[in-house]
Fold these 2 entries.
Entry 1:
Amino acid sequence: MSIDFEIPSEAKAIREKVRKWVQEECIPAEKELDTKPLAEVLGPLRAKARARGLWCPWVPKEYGGMGLGPLANALVQMELGESMLGALSMNTQGPDDASMMTILAHGTEYQKEKFLKPLLNGDKRICFSMTEKAAGADATGMQTTAVKDGNENYVLNGEKWFSSSASVADMALVMAKTDPNAPRHKQYSTFIVELPNPGYKIKRNVANMAIEGPHDDVLHGGHSEIEIRDLKVPADNLLGGEGNGFAMGQHRLAYGRLRHGMHNVAKAQRALDMAVAHVTKRSTFGKLLADRQAVQFMLADCASELYIGRLMLLHIAYKAEKGLDIRQENSIAKIFHAHMVHKVIDTAIQLHGALGFSQYTPLAKWYTQVRSQRLVDGPDEVHKWKIGKNVIKAFREHGTTASAAGGDLL
Ligand SMILES: Cc1cc2nc3c(=O)[nH]c(=O)nc-3n(C[C@H](O)[C@H](O)[C@H](O)COP(=O)(O)OP(=O)(O)OC[C@H]3O[C@@H](n4cnc5c(N)ncnc54)[C@H](O)[C@@H]3O)c2cc1C
């Protein structure tokens, strides 16, 4: 008897199809971005992806997606992350996908028809505005308010900070306090806001440490600071009912964490491949770098980290397929993948020497981008705090911490 690591043939086939798609279409198309406008690259790429049935991987078939379950989706996302055009080509890019997930799960028929449909069709983009200067890791510190104005509208006032892709979005999910007297986690609601809107004013895209690439302004926009002043939102645009904003936000962030992890595995894999391609060609002091044990050790460390990262995702996917609670594993994996990708890219830069530090490979850009992974969707320390509490709880309940340390099924 053994654990069956054989991937079901259907999932394997779709992974092969996506792998081919990324390697043969997306990665070569990246070069075109140097000379062509984004629409001329992404438009035809998306049309081709769709024609091959590669579109919105986890979205149910009745909504036009591929209807993949957690395992097949994880395998697909682990391929897509190798190219900056991968997820975009199949309309499964963050932050849009997590918001699509929220509207799909909690939207009314009207909201699905009016807002979700164009998102799923790839005609529109959406951003998520939760964080404020006053409140990030502890989102319950949000100050933005939503006050009902008769039965027709809510009026929102406040500010938001680091709303990714707001400047390229056609709509935003905005969280605001609807009931200051409710229990802490029931005070907030989420609204679908159509953009542009005079009440939702992008003050600036916040300059940050990530190196910009061609078309980033249109591809991802920036991370915007937003002034919300007398923003009128129709009551029909309240998503999921009053007081449910916080719970819905956590649900979307949970998927975002996993998707980041999957893309991080893919990115780390590409970085390791690049490192090996380099050291198998480059000689110093009369010997190929690949033949140096010190270099082999560096590659071994990266391979080990990638192996752990992959196994974590497969274990989480397995639990998700069975409908089991994945919160503890998701937090552990979120931290691990954020550090893993940083470490592997760092090693790849080191082995490329000055070339790695230059902008002639994507490594430098990735290095500056992935640093944010330790902050977004909850910083390391907040996840560690939760993980640690669960470890103690498990010990108190079972006399061993195993169930909180990946051992619940083992
Ligand atoms: C690239 C990027 C994209 C983002 N995109 C979005 C987006 O689209 N929408 C959105 O709403 N937000 C977004 N954010 C915001 C992100 O969710 C917050 O930055 C994150 O939640 C941390 O909040 P903060 O920055 O206010 O840090 P704070 O809450 O001020 O925390 C600062 C630091 O304090 C430490 N800390 C906090 N709490 C604890 C604790 N309990 N115990 C120990 N240490 C602790 C951590 O080290 C933490 O990094 C984005 C951020 C970045 C960097």
Entry 2:
Amino acid sequence: MRDAVVLYINEQRHEVADRHALRSLSDYLRRDCGLVGTKIVCSEGDCGACTVLVGRPAADGATLDYQPVDSCIRFLFQLDGCHVVTVEGLAEPGQLNGVQQAMVDCYGSQCGFCTPGFVMAMTGMLQQSRPQDDEAWRLGLTGNLCRCTGYEQILEAGAAAAEACEADALGKRYAPAEMLAEFASLATDDVEVRARLHDGDHCVAMPATLDAALVFLAKHPEAVIAAGATDLGVRANKSGQLPATILDLNRIADLDFVRHEEDAVVCGARATWATLASELRDAAPEFAAVLDRFGGPQIRAVGTIAGNIANGSPIADSLPFLFITEAAIEATSRDGVRWIPIGEFYHGYKQLELRPGELITAVRIPLPPADDLLKLYKVSRRRDLDISGFTAGIRLRLAGETIQSAWIALGGVGPTVVRAAKAEAFLQGRELSEDAFRAAGEIAVGEVTPISDVRGSAEYRRQLVRNVFLKFFHQTDQQPQIA
Ligand SMILES: Cc1cc2nc3c(=O)[nH]c(=O)nc-3n(C[C@H](O)[C@H](O)[C@H](O)COP(=O)(O)OP(=O)(O)OC[C@H]3O[C@@H](n4cnc5c(N)ncnc54)[C@H](O)[C@@H]3O)c2cc1C
Ligand code: FES
Ligand code: FES
């Protein structure tokens, strides 16, 4: 059993043990490494000022795959076997890389506080592909906020950098062979870190296999599971406290998969939103479009489907789709495996049908036939990088003009996502008409129990329920096929 985390930062090897392994990456970079180019503004994944690139061994085994990550909500214990590149590591001291030069040439920086984060996100985009236009740059930078320059110059810098930068610049700057060899030799170790913090003793297990994780969980049923830690990291920063016992899933390769079956897709618990957005683009285009607005790229790079489900928020963006496709959740413990229909997974606000010693290992999503009508809705105050105030998913199966079956899920209008069973029953057997949808919306309002909070009043949310039925009718009227 190893008791230290091994990672590389700008090609320098770091071995981190004891309480240090429980710190955030941004804190370690700034305080211990003197890499203060990484800035901290919000500490909750909302602004991107702390963006770094994290390289993990790619599927080919010969390269590192770099993803942008908010270092303020990434724990060091999650970075075993990773290469972290910070803004200081993009070029030789005193020199600028192509993106930095383009930001200078295009006046992309004023106070400069957001600039390292933008530079890292842009370098990450160029590492993965060549964004073709302003819209591609805009979408890739939704995780970064600038309060003074204005985005036009930054987008111009992106276009200029795309012309000037060579492909795989990081792969060339940091020949990965030595790091990859060490990461491969460490990959099968189980790792466990113990530390005493101001609030008591802590233990973090980072097993390499599912079996080892289940053994740990059977011994420590109180352990809090960490996957992407986009929820957990924010909670820790806001409360100043970490759970006493954590089981981190980041090193379990077997949970990181997407399997396409004939009429379903099965996602491993560690499948990230970035992976799912690209894997489901053809199979579930409506869902992939919602995922494009899920957090920003830094959140999608690490946030997982299992984390979204287990966090249990009634406004989680994946849930309306999972409810109307009647997805099932695989829960695994040392006692075995069971599949739980998503409709039976929530007993109340954040109360899950998970037994002590169980964790989510996969999600099976049956894919609706192409001629079902299906729409998903996310209402938030800002289009990008915002938590929903209301969500909905509506799916219909028609026989000619008659509604044969309806699936309707509403989020943000009760302690859990609600299946509007009475509205579904009302629509069944009726012709498609505005009157039917108006009446169904009114029935659905009687099935929800919204509250008033910062994202909207209860009455506003009831109105959104009515509106979404009419919107669905007008969007799908005359369009029997999913676009
Ligand atoms: C800036 C920002 C933007 C966001 N935007 C959105 C958004 O647009 N839409 C949205 O829905 N959410 C959003 N979120 C919330 C969050 O990113 C998602 O809920 C994400 O999917 C959580 O996944 P994770 O892997 O990071 O979970 P973690 O933070 O690791 O875990 C979340 C919870 O799930 C539990 N858990 C994790 N994995 C398992 C498992 N395998 N078995 C059992 N329990 C498990 C953890 O113990 C924890 O309680 C946002 C968060 C941030 C910080
Ligand atoms: S400091 Fe704002 S995302 Fe990390
Ligand atoms: S340059 Fe000041 S916040 Fe962007």
